[in-house]
Structure formats: C-alpha cells, structure tokens
C-alpha cells in the first residue's frame, strides 16, 4: 500500500477507534468519569499538582474550556484547588479522584482485555509501542507548531 493510502487508512481507523471510545464512555454507566475528567485526573496522577495554565497546555485546550471541564471535578470532590508555593493556585487530584480514576481505568482495562483476548502478547506490545510513538510524534508536532506561533 502506498504511503498516502496508508495514511488515509490510518486516519479512518483512528476515527473509528475514537468513535468507539466515545460511545463506550457515553453509554457505560459503570464509569464514574467523563473523558475530560479521566484525562485531567490522569495527568494530575502522573505529574502531581499543576497550575491551570500548565494543565491547559498539557491538554491542548484554552483556559475557558479547562474551567468548564474542572467545574464538575471540583464540585464532585475529585480535584482540589491548593495554594501554589510560588504564588497562585494549583489543581491537585483528591483521594476520591484518584480512586475514581483507578476504578475507571480498571474497568476500561478489563473491557479492552476481553476485546483483545485473541491477540498475541507480541501483537499487543507492538500496537502499544506504535500508538505511543504516534502520540509522541503528534505531541512533538503540536509543540513545534505552538512554538512557531509565539512571537
């Protein structure tokens, strides 16, 4: 398959994958977090407390979008706003937020494990590595574009 055809096929498969993830999140009543809450808590779990500016930058969204996405997490006790030692405030995952993240991640992993039960370990490792490479390449391209747009 030529490169252009492979890129077109990849774009289609990524769209199908995104649709299935959106569908599952919307209709799986066992999940506690919506997609934005899951991503926000995942970042806070990995990186620890973050300023809103840094969190918005990591998510690739603007401040007003982050404010809307954080509202439910803050009111639900999943995220706290804490004092930043350098001034201002930071967002931090609460124990309840980390537990909701763990529970949802466990449910998602179990479901994906069932779907991929017929796949070999080697295929799973290869797919995970390729998706990680793709996400890193996309993040690098976004960072380069953002840097080029700065005065």
CATH architecture of the largest domain: Orthogonal Bundle
Number of domains: 2
Arithmetic mean of pLDDT: 89
Low-confidence stretches: none
Number of helices: 6
Please provide the count of β strands: 2
- The radius of gyration is 18 Å
CATH top level of the largest domain?
Mainly Alpha
* Strand residue percentage: 5-15%
Measured as a percent range, the helix fraction is over 70%
Give a written overview of the molecule.
There is one protein chain. The chain has six helices and two strands; from the N terminus they run ααααββαα. A two-stranded antiparallel ribbon has the order 1-2. The chain folds into two domains: 27-117, Arc Repressor Mutant, subunit A (Orthogonal Bundle), CATH 1.10.10.10; 119-151. Helix 2 (35-47) packs across helix 5. The longest helix is centred in the C-terminal third of the chain and has 29 residues, at 121-149. The protein has helices spanning 3-27, 35-47, 52-59, 63-75, 95-115, 121-149; strands at residues 79-83, 89-93. The model has no long low-confidence stretch (mean pLDDT 89). The radius of gyration is 18 Å and the shape is globular. Strand 1 (79-83) and strand 2 form a beta hairpin. By secondary structure, the protein is mainly alpha-helical.
Quick gist of this model?
With 151 residues, this protein is mainly α.
List keywords for this structure.
151 residues, mainly alpha, Arc Repressor Mutant, subunit A, 2 domains, two-stranded antiparallel sheet, 6 helices, globular
